[in-house]
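Standup notes
- DV: blocked on the single-chain target, sequence here:
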Amino acid sequence: MATATEHFYIITDNQILSGEPTIKGTRTPVRAIVELWRQGVVPEEIPNHLPHLTLAQVFDALSYYSDHQEEINAYIDRNRIPDDLIDPLVKDE
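- DV (later): unblocked, structure below
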């Protein structure tokens, strides 16, 4: 069952990514938006990378991150691919 958060577009649902915060109506986790932003993609450009999202959803995800950095950083760390599993050809890009 989906649970609302204090952010309009962000929900948690144990049936979607084991309850990780996602954008309402999608399976897109907040961490995906945060990771793009950390790579230097400005918020206005993120919908070009994730065209099913609106700019309002992106900003709400970044706002959620601002309020819950420790939680989202833990999801990012938990889902990181270890360096030794990444092909060297991919690393050089």
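- Follow-up: The radius of gyration is 14 Å.
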